């Protein structure tokens, strides 16, 4: 059985995958590791399958390059497929726009041995911007999976309300299988719908167990961010999807009898944030991009319970 599986969910990644695969080919200090690469094609309509096939035909490495398809659309489904298909106990997820540092794999494996109770642990993620980001962009940068939280490992306590993104995330298969339901509410952005945070739903379930979740700064990846992901329309839509999903991640682990108390408390806090935000920025709420994104987060979080219940019971 392999020591490690690198899983790459992708949708129309023919132009992005080669650079990721080349970075994995160049991993160092892996001579004693038995590992594999697994590409999960999530209904691509381009030449993604052909790109992987061409690599496989010329693959002389001692770690296998495997390919599978997941026809249910959504990153959440693709990651579930990876858990099912991976032959190892440790699964490291890379998006097709994530470039791992040359020691990413060994840093992940070493961390798993040092912290055996870590059911999941995330990478330090640096941005590679195609264009200069807007002023004060660091305030919302974490929503684009940019995670630079210092050079020391950090244990994510439930009280901190922080969790790592799926980019560069390593999960123990046992922790996933023991705690993550087969049917998840959040499945990722699909067909123009931006409802997201499917990775946080998974991690919230794991965090409710006896497993720990960590930040491992020694695992470094570089996230390529094209110019269109810094445009106002995309950012507002992205933040809206994150906010609308918050009812799910907030209430995992909350007992049914507690929800009538917890949900109004969250909504009251969201309403308080909206009022304070308007008082602070006034007309700039509409003209300042970062302020507009923050307002969208608060408003979407406020209506999240209604949106999620509508989605669950009426399918829209």
Question: What is the topology?
Answer:
Elements: E1 4-10, H1 17-25, E2 35-41, H2 48-57, E3 65-69, H3 75-85, E4 90-93, E5 98-100, H4 104-114, E6 118-129, E7 154-155, E8 170-172, H5 173-179, H6 198-207, E9 212-225, H7 232-244, H8 246-251, H9 259-281, H10 284-287, H11 289-314
Parallel strand pairs: 1-2, 1-4, 2-3, 6-9
Antiparallel strand pairs: 4-8, 5-9, 6-8, 7-9
Instruction: Please identify which CATH superfamily of the largest domain we are dealing with.
Output: Spore Coat Polysaccharide Biosynthesis Protein SpsA, Chain A
User: What global shape is seen?
Assistant: globular
Q: How many separate structural domains?
A: 2
Q: Uncertain segments of ≥5 residues (pLDDT<50)?
A: none
Corresponding CATH architecture of the largest domain: Alpha-Beta Complex
User: What top-tier CATH class of the largest domain fits best?
Assistant: Alpha Beta
User: H/E series, N to C?
Assistant: EHEHEHEEHEEEHHEHHHHH
Radius of gyration: 20 Å
**Which topology of the largest domain does CATH recognise?**
Spore Coat Polysaccharide Biosynthesis Protein SpsA, Chain A
Number of strands: 9
Cα separation of the termini: 42 Å
What is the arithmetic mean of pLDDT? 94
What structural category arises from helix and sheet content?
Answer: alpha/beta
State the helix count: 11
Helix content, binned percent: 40-55%
């Amino acid at each position: 059985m392999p020591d490690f599986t690198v899983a790459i969910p992708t949708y129309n990644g023919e132009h992005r995958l080669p650079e990721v695969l080349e970075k994995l080919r160049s991993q160092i200090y892996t001579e004693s590791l038995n590992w594999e690469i697994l590409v999960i094609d999530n209904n691509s309509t381009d030449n993604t399958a052909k790109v992987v096939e061409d690599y496989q035909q010329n693959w002389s490495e001692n770690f296998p390059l495997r390919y599978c398809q997941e026809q249910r659309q959504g990153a959440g489904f693709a990651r579930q497929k990876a858990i099912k298909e991976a032959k190892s106990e440790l699964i490291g997820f890379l998006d097709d726009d994530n470039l791992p540092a040359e020691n990413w794999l060994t840093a992940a494996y070493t961390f798993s041995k040092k912290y055996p109770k870590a059911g999941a642990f995330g990478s330090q993620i640096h941005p590679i911007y195609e264009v200069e980001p807007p002023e004060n962009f660091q305030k919302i940068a974490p929503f684009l999976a940019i995670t630079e939280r210092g050079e020391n490992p950090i244990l994510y306590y439930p009280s901190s309300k922080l969790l790592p993104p799926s980019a560069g995330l390593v999960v123990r298969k046992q922790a996933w299988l023991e705690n993550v339901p087969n049917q998840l509410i959040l499945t990722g952005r699909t067909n123009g719908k931006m409802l997201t945070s499917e990775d946080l739903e998974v991690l919230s379930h794991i965090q409710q167990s006896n497993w720990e979740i960590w930040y491992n700064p020694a695992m470094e990846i570089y996230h390529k961010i094209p110019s269109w992901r810094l445009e106002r329309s995309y950012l507002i839509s992205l933040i809206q999807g994150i906010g609308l999903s918050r009812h799910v991640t907030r209430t995992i682990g909350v007992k049914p009898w507690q929800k009538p108390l917890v949900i109004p408390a969250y909504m009251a806090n969201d309403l308080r944030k909206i009022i304070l935000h308007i008082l602070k920025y006034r007309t700039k709420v509409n003209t300042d991009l970062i302020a507009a994104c923050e307002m969208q987060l608060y408003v979407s979080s406020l209506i999240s319970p209604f949106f999620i219940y509508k989605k669950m019971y009426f399918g829209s």
